[in-house]
Amino acid sequence: MTPSPPVSSTAAATCSWGCDVIIDDGDLAKHIEDAQAVASSEWNRLEYFERYFRGDQEPPYTPPTSTREYKALVPRSITNLTRLVINTMVQRCIIDGYRASSTDVENAAPWQWWQANGMDSRQKALWEETGKHGYASMLVLPASFRDAAYDHRTAPIMQPVSPREWYVHMDSWSDDWPQWAIRRDAHDPDKWWIVDDERLRVVKSQRKPNRLLTIDRDDVHGFEVVPFVPFRNAFDLTRAPIGEIEPIIPIQDRLNQTVFDLLVATTYSSAPQKWIAGMAVPTDEASGQPIIDLKAFAKSVWLSDDPTTKFGSLPEANLSNIVTAIDSTLRVYGLMSQTPPHYLLGDLVNLSAEALLAADTTLAKKIQDHQMIWGEAVESAFRLAAVAAGDMDAADDESSQVMWRATEPRSVAQQVDALGKMATMLGIPTEALWEQVPGVTSTDLELWRAMRARDRLRAATQAALMTPPPPLPGTPAVEQGPANPTTAATQIPRTA
Hints:
By secondary structure, the protein is of the alpha+beta class. Helix content is 38%, strand content 14%. The strands form 4 sheets. Strands 1-9-8-7-6-5 form a 6-stranded antiparallel sheet, with helices on one face. Strand 8 (199-206) and strand 9 (212-220) form a beta hairpin.
């Protein structure tokens, strides 16, 4: 059953933090019950991907007759590469500016809100949650929703939220805005945060009697939409977006199983196995246990007085076949996740710069797709924050765009050489090429532009000092050499 948006049958009380208003609202209480069932089901599904990301994965198969030593190898066989898949994508997605148009070189005024909310570092958590679970959200609220007791910032709130914390209900995943959102309080399981297109409520549900509700907070946020901007890992029109972990779980389980087989073979068959033929091991008559311990150690020597006794050893197991199977699984892992093979295999022998760039192409295309989708969501968040700040010009600005930092693994020398040829051979202004310098940030660009402006001002001042002043009235102009203002007025023309 899909719960409908909360509609209160009782006039909502307007209050702030700390109020204690008890109402009898059956519709709101019913919505909380319905939403809890839907949200809990989704949270359980997402928790499965979170466990794989943390390395808490399904154990490999072990026979029912496994011994304690055998089972001790199970946790050691978990080779978690899901974190590598997420990190290789997230570490190359860094928003470094927000321009009002493609022709502007300075960041727009809303960029200050991004800085005020600490999004330079928090954006990594947003991309990570989106990549793990397929989607995440950014909550945007007016600055008045900050707790004035400890937060005096005046910028609108821009807060990344995890889908495992806030359940954001989308009527259709092709929609731009959700219908409502709900979250269980972290400290009180009976307290719920509910947001619709008008209000933010903090409600404590009293299950019995009569569905009484305690309203801890009820504020109008001032938007005409639910202020959660959805971030998708991929744009799917018919279902919740698929994250990076979900399609590689079978490959991850296969890798763990193969590594487990390698550990078992290494433990029990990597060394030659000893055998003895023609010797009976003496046992204790009372207990029936062997008197001599025939375990093989590095310095152990076995003796027998029976001339027919034979000693020998079996060859060690060939582990190369299992290692080859692991390499094959890692290559499939890279194909499924669009991760370059040298990231997984660590094989960088005799690879040229061109070969590394070609191997990185699939990951680069994947990152470009994510930047396109996430960039649009960030722009929507900026426009919604502009509504919260009362800046309607920024709210209506649909030509603005975010600026992504260049993080491609290219040689700095090769990149700078290419940029220099673009400036000299194609006539592209050098300042337009600064943004393509590897590793450059918006702070670096602002500093460089300020230094260039200072150099131009200094050059203009020096040129003005070197320019000769105009001749004084009544004196002949001097054709060659700079005029001397101290002697020009007293110069006497020569007569024939």
